Structures are given as structure tokens and as C-alpha cells.
């Protein structure tokens, strides 16, 4: 059971509320049976309708009914509070996937965007079922028990027939509902494990593409919902096949029971009151049966969601070891059949990245550039072959070590809703009190650029970062790049972050990156679909026809890239 449910329901207040509702429900059940007996006795002429005894029992029934209504209202409010807290816990777990550290993890100003919309959709799938699971459907059981008891009281023969019919319904439907009670904790447990794992990969790896990777996971999750749920809800569901069979059998038993009841009445075995109850039975039993069927529907949706979470965990198998990150390693890739969610992206990759080198990686949109980058930093494990950091396989390096030595800057990464200076400070390994502007000057940032950041851009954004989302793409990408440099990582990956820079700013940034790599002997991978943004790279690799090919001259790759782009455009036009 999830901690939030356990802490709320197992508390003294929760136990008291549950006990109160149970006690009132059982009392009402007893009074309902008693009142039904009197109704039948009056119809059969056994009891005087105007007697004080009948009115006394009616008042008891009415009073307990009002008490039960009040109790269920209180318990509904209690269960809804528990659900809201559980929802908040789940949302917070997913929010950690795209947060950059404890400092802003609980920040109300953090923008979750599409992720929040996705979570709302996920949680809404479980909302009604959670509430119905937390609120015992005592009224359903009460009605069923009442009918059984009254029928047994009037006639053992008719009672046995109806009891068989009702018990069959209960066994089938309550089994489905009971299974649902187990699914919710299991689903939440699996959801929590998935969130913890993704948090470990994305958050503990500091800046390793949290937004980009999370959004890809969410997009895949959406597609799996559409594929799995119809499958779970229809022909492939054993529970639903059993449910349909039970409905046919129940209908047959209903006709048989009514026919038997009519025959028994004509023979004088039972009275008019029992016949009245038999005719009224179909209406009385309809509501609890429909409620149970509603639970069965929701269980199937939850099973689909549970299957998605299990599949998601299977795709993101943790392959983290416990080895340290080697000192200034040379990265060597010899892999094949690189996949993304079982879809082959690249057939073959042979690459070497030495300290002090800038590697350019280019290809048309969707060719697999980002997937390859994720494999290099240990976020993608679906491939054959080996990725070594010097002589250490990447699978043996712990995720925390990778995060401490890798910076991944993607085009869709977010800035904090704080000042420019605090955005640049980020979560650098250096003391937060050290002057950010001084450190940028030491890295080689020009005085004119520092003045622009410190005055013009800082004034535009404000101390509280209120206008951070209004920054131009070029300014935003520049801040992300500078923040990555301040982190002082061994491997820096810039995924399309140079594409939004104008010509003058790109020339300035390219000189800065070249100086940074040469000075600190770090490794850098530049990913861009614009070939002119790779002119200062030491080596260029282009993705063409499913393979990562080395090009000694950028001009050779530019010609190949143009051909690839023309082929892609022609296919797009053909599809239209």
C-alpha cells in the first residue's frame, strides 16, 4: 500500500471513520431487513398497517438511513482528502523528473507545461475508482443482503433459488471489485518505482536532458495507452468473457426464479408480499449490480495503466554499475542495432572521442542523433556492442558518477524563475558565493557580453525571474550553454543549442567553446542539423542511411546531408 494511503487510513482518525461507517451500515442493514418483513406482513394481511409497531420500525429505518447518509458524506470527504494528498504525492514524484535540484523542487513557480497535462490525464484514469475503492459500497451489499434475508424468511424454496442467483452475481462481480482493490496499491507502487528510477536517471545526473527525455517517455506512454486499453477492455480480457457468461446465466436464473415464484403463489406456498418482493427485486438489484460493473470497467483501465508502467520500466532497465568515472577518458563506441523503444534507429556506430576534441554530429530530423547521444551518456541501453570510457564499460559506471561528469544541454531545456545570475550559477560544483561574472570572465567570455548579461538582460528578466519565459531563443540558448560551461564537466553535449544563435553570436560562442575545450581538455559533442554550425569541430560524423559515418571534410558531409534532406522532403510530399 502506498505510504500516503497507509498513513491516512491507518491513522486513529481514519480507523474511527471506517469503524463508524461500518457500524452504521450494519445497523441500517438490520433495520432494512426488519422493515421489509413488516411490509410483506402488512401486504399479506398479517399486521395492521396502522399499528404503532409498524410506525415505530419505520421511524427507526428512517433515522438510521439519515445517519448513514451523514456518515457516508463524512467518509466521502475524508476519502477525497486522502486521494488529493495521494495525487499531490504522485505529481510531486513526476515533477522531480524535470527538476534540477532540491532548491526548486517544491517551487510553485516551476513550469511543468505538458507534463502536468499528462499527469492530469493519468490521474483522472484512477480518480473515480480510487474514490469508490476508498468508500466501501455498503449500500450495494445492504440491498443484496436484505433481499436474501426477506426471501429466506418467506420461503426456503424461493429463497434458495434467489440466493443462488444473487450469490452467483456477487461472486463474479465482487471478485472483480476485490481485484480492483489490489490493483490500486500495486499500480501506485509501480508508479512510484518508475518515478524513483527516472528521477535517479534524470535528476541525479544533474543536467542530463531531463525535459527532453521526460517528454519522450510521456509521448511514448500516451501511445501505449491507446494501444493497450482497447486490448485489455475487450476480447482479450478473461474477466469480461466471464462477465458476459455470468449475465447469460443470471438472466436464465431470473426467469426460472420468477416462474417458480408464480407457480408457488398459485399453489398457496407463498403470500402476496413475497410475490411483490420478487417483482420488485429486479429494480432493487439493478443499482448495486451496475455499480459493481462500473468497478469492473475501471479495473480494466487500471490494468492497462499498470501494463504500461511495467513496459516502461522494462524499456528503461537500470544498467548502472558501481565504478568511478575514469580520469579524462577517451570514449570509444562500437555498437550496432541502436533502438529507441524497440524501433531501430542506427545500424552501426564506430566512434572515438578523445580529451580536447570537439565532435560534430549531424543528420536530418529523426535520424537518431539524440538517441545516440543518450547512449553515449548511459541513458539509452537498447543496443548491441560496447561503449567504453577508456577501459571501463559504461554499464559499470554508476549513474551518479555519470551525472557528476556529464552536462547535456538540449534545445527544450528550461531556465529557473530566478535572476540571470542565479540561473547561471545553477548547481555548479563551485561555492555559490563565488562571483559568477568573474568565473565567466576567466572562461573567456568577452567583456561586452558580460555587460549585456549583467545589465540589459538582468533588468529585462528581473530579480525574481518573472520574465524569464519571454527571453528570445538566442538569449535562452546562450544562458544554457554558459551554465553548462560553469558546471566544469568532462563531457558536454550540446543538442541543437547552437541552431537558434544568429551569425554574430554564433561566431562568438564558437570561439568561446573552442577556447574552453582546448584549455580544459574536455570532450564536447555538437549536435546540429545545420552543417554550417559544425565548422569548428575536430571531427564530423553524419548519420546517413541508418549508419553513423565519419567524414574527414565538412564539405563532403554537407553534400551528403543535402541529398538526405532532398530524399526526406520528397517522401514527405509523396505522403501528402
Structural description of this entry:
The model is unreliable at 1-9, 89-120, 125-131, 133-144, 176-185, 201-237 and 570-576 (pLDDT under 50). Helix 1 (3-9) packs antiparallel against helix 3 (52-95), helix 2 runs antiparallel to helix 9 (272-315) and helix 7 (210-233) runs antiparallel to helix 9 (272-315). This protein has helices at 3-9, 12-43, 52-95, 114-134, 138-154, 156-202, 210-233, 238-266, 272-315, 369-376, 399-405, 420-425, 436-443, 447-461, 473-486, 503-520, 554-575, and strands spanning 331-340, 343-353, 358-362, 384-389, 392-393, 406-410, 491-495, 523-527, 539-544, 547-551. It folds into two domains: 3-315, ABC transporter transmembrane region fold (Up-down Bundle), CATH 1.20.1560; 331-415 and 471-575, Rossmann fold (3-Layer(aba) Sandwich). By secondary structure, it is α/β, with parallel strands linked by helices. A hairpin with a 2-residue loop joins strand 9 and strand 10 (547-551). A ten-stranded mixed beta sheet has the order 5-4-1-2-10-9-3-8-7-6, with helices on both faces. The protein is extended and about 105 Å long. The protein starts with a helix and ends with a helix. The chain has 17 helices and ten strands.
Amino acid at each position: 500500500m502506498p505510504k500516503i494511503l497507509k498513513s491516512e487510513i491507518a491513522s486513529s482518525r481514519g480507523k474511527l471513520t471506517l469503524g463508524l461507517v461500518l457500524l452504521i451500515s450494519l445497523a441500517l442493514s438490520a433495520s432494512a431487513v426488519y422493515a421489509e418483513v413488516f411490509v410483506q406482513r402488512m401486504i399479506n394481511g398479517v399486521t395492521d398497517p396502522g399499528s404503532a409497531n409498524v410506525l415505530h420500525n419505520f421511524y427507526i429505518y428512517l433515522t438510521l438511513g439519515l445517519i448513514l447518509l451523514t456518515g457516508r458524506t463524512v467518509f466521502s470527504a475524508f476519502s477525497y482528502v486522502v486521494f488529493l494528498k495521494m495525487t499531490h504525492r504522485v505529481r510531486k514524484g513526476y515533477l522531480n523528473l524535470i527538476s534540477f535540484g532540491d532548491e526548486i523542487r517544491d517551487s510553485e513557480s516551476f513550469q511543468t507545461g505538458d507534463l502536468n497535462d499528462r499527469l492530469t490525464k493519468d490521474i483522472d484514469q484512477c480518480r473515480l475508482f480510487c474514490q469508490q475503492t476508498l468508500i466501501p459500497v455498503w449500500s450495494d451489499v445492504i440491498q443484496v443482503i436484505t433481499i436474501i434475508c426477506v426471501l429466506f424468511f418467506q420461503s426456503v424454496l424461493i429463497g434458495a433459488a434467489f440466493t443462488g442467483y444473487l450469490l452467483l452475481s456477487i461472486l463474479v462481480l465482487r471478485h472483480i471489485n476485490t481485484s480492483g482493490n489490489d490493483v490500486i496499491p500495486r499500480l501506485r507502487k509501480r508508479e512510484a518505482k518508475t518515478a524513483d528510477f527516472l528521477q535517479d536517471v534524470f535528476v541525479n545526473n544533474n543536467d542530463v536532458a531531463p525535459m527532453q527525455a521526460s517528454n519522450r517517455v510521456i509521448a511514448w506512454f500516451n501511445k501505449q495507452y491507446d494501444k493497450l486499453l482497447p486490448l485489455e477492455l475487450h476480447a482479450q480480457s478473461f474477466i469480461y468473457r466471464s462477465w458476459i457468461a455470468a449475465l447469460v446465466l443470471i438472466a436464465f436464473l431470473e426467469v426460472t426464479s420468477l416462474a417458480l415464484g408464480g407457480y408457488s403463489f398459485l399453489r398457496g406456498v407463498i403470500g402476496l408480499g413475497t410475490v411483490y418482493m420478487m417483482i420488485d427485486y429486479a429494480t432493487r438489484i439493478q443499482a448495486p449490480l451496475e455499480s459493481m460493473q462500473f468497478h469492473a470497467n475501471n479495473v480494466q483501465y487500471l490494468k492497462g495503466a499498470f501494463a504500461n508502467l511495467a513496459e516502461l520500466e522494462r524499456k528503461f532497465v537500470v544498467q548502472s554499475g558501481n565504478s568511478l568515472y575514469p580520469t579524462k577518458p577517451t570514449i570509444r563506441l562500437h555498437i550496432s542495432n541502436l533502438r529507441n523503444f524497440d524501433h531501430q534507429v542506427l545500424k552501426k556506430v564506430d566512434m572515438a572521442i578523445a580529451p580536447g576534441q570537439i565532435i560534430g554530429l549531424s543528420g536530418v530530423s529523426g535520424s537518431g542523433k539524440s538517441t545516440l547521444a543518450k547512449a553515449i551518456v548511459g541513458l539509452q541501453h537498447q543496443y548491441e556492442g560496447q561503449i567504453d570510457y577508456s577501459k571501463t564499460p559504461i554499464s559499470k559506471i554508476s549513474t551518479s558518477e555519470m551525472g557528476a561528469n556529464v552536462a547535456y544541454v538540449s534545445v527544450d531545456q528550461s531556465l529557473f524563475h530566478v535572476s540571470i545570475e542565479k540561473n547561471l550559477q545553477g548547481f555548479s560544483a563551485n561555492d555559490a558565493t563565488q562571483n559568477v561574472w568573474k568565473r565567466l570572465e576567466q572562461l573567456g567570455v568577452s567583456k561586452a557580453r558580460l555587460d549585456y548579461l549583467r545589465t540589459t538582460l538582468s533588468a529585462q528578466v528581473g530579480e525574481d525571474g518573472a520574465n524569464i519565459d519571454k527571453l528570445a531563443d538566442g538569449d535562452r540558448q546562450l544562458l544554457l550553454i554558459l551554465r553548462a560551461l560553469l558546471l566544469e564537466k568532462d563531457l558536454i553535449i550540446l543538442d541543437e543549442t547552437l541552431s537558434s544563435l544568429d551569425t554574430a553570436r554564433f561566431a562568438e560562442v564558437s570561439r568561446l567553446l573552442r577556447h574552453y575545450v582546448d584549455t580544459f581538455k574536455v570532450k564536447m559533442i555538437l549536435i546540429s542539423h545545420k552543417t554550417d554550425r559544425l565548422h569548428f569541430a575536430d571531427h564530423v560524423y553524419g548519420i546517413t542511411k541508418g549508419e553513423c559515418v565519419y567524414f574527414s571534410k565538412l564539405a563532403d558531409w554537407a553534400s551528403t546531408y543535402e541529398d538526405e534532406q532532398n530524399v526526406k522532403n520528397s517522401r514527405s510530399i509523396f505522403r501528402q
